[in-house]
Amino acid sequence: MSKMAEQPADDGLQAALARVGDRWSLLVVDALLPGARRFGELQEELGGIATNVLSQRLRQLEREGVIVAVPYSAHPPRHAYELTAAGRDLAGALLLLTSWGSRHTDPAAEGGPHHHACGTALEARWYCPTCDQLVDHEPSDPQVHYV
Known about the structure:
single chain; alpha+beta; Arc Repressor Mutant, subunit A; 3-stranded antiparallel beta sheet; two-stranded antiparallel ribbon
């Protein structure tokens, strides 16, 4: 595959990494998936994050439209943080990263989501809703292209 054909995928990945590409930002998004959290709750849940780093990541994620700060006290000004629709869209990517990380840390591990009925680890699949087909996604697969 030529570099020209790869460019759109690279651009998409670069754009995503520019918005949420550091460890703490992804962990903040993950901590907010269940719902809104206050600053202190986030700091407690993300043990090890410095106050200034958490503040910086929250401001960056807000600028990027991934989270929104909702005021709950005017004096002193305090906020709860929650995901926007764009932030909630990251849930699937985080589950895939979690699963990948678990498998590559401990090959016997089955991290990620499991089927409630039987407990089997779920697998992510690429699906074309127009053709109603599952599509294998390999970097060299001619069926898959980025636009």
